[in-house]
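Risk mitigation, structural track. In case the binding assays with magnesium ion fail to produce interpretable data, a predicted complex structure has been prepared as a fallback.
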Amino acid sequence: MNPQLAQTVNLPVELADTAQNLLDFAGNQKIFLFYGDMGAGKTTFIKALCERLGITDDVTSPTFSIVNEYIGTSAKIYHFDFYRLKNQNEALDMGYEEYFYSDAYCFIEWPEKIPDLLPEHYTKISIQVLNASSRRFVFENI
Ligand code: ADP
Ligand code: MG
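Fallback model:
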């Protein structure tokens, strides 16, 4: 079985600690796949992760561009949202490989849209809504 870590987060303010826990858990792994329904908290959690990594840019879902790039003092992050992808060829066309196989962090929302393009190793983050302000997070290194 792959290493796993589960925790319940009760308020968005607790996400800073959860973000640090994830970075520690992931170790050298820099490709993070986020699973969870619409409104589960993927983008909100990515924002917390970016803050932990020293990014001061505005972090919002890359609705029009598929990928956003954030550059901090010591980290570079590519934030993908594949929700609107019509097919996997669109990811090929945008040159996803150059991002995935760079040394930057890749935070990916809706990886379900690119089932055949997933890298061999990544950290999986599953977010489940418990109630209005509580979420269950499960981390797994694949
Ligand atoms: P997604 O990207 O998964 O569609 P968003 O991050 O855009 O979801 O929205 C999640 C919503 O849930 C936000 O309004 C956020 O404030 C709220 N929320 C409430 N509690 C939490 C929590 N514990 N963790 C993450 N988000 C939470
Ligand atoms: Mg989102």
